[in-house]
Design brief:
single chain, alpha+beta, binds zinc ion
């Protein structure tokens, strides 16, 4: 008689998979603004959550068109692609926690 373990597929894991969990895809509803910056007020990017001006950060010197916008008023974070004129409001801490709970 064959045991149930012998019919299981061999594990296809590397040592790294035990250290870092495999990424999973989670769907988020995201607020997106097109275009950014608006031609008439290109000096400021507004927070998509509260409308206050964002503080802009350039985390990657090799990708100057990609910015991180943070709101000092409500704490929201945004990804901004200035080449494509797109601003995306990122999930907040509660949204990320909910995503982790859904996995
Ligand atoms: Zn805000």
């Amino acid at each position: 008689m064959q045991s149930s373990l012998s019919s299981a597929r061999p594990l296809e894991r590397t040592a790294m998979s035990f250290v870092f969990p495999r990424p999973r895809t989670v769907l988020f509803p995201l607020a997106v603004s097109l275009p950014w910056p608006a031609p008439e007020d290109s000096a400021e990017a507004p927070c998509l959550a509260c409308g206050e001006p964002l503080t802009l950060h350039q985390p990657d010197v090799n990708a100057p068109e990609r910015l991180l916008g943070t709101c000092d008023d409500c704490g929201a974070w945004h990804l901004i692609d200035t080449d494509r004129a797109v601003t995306v409001l990122l999930p907040n801490a509660d949204g990320l926690r909910d995503a982790g709970d859904a996995i």
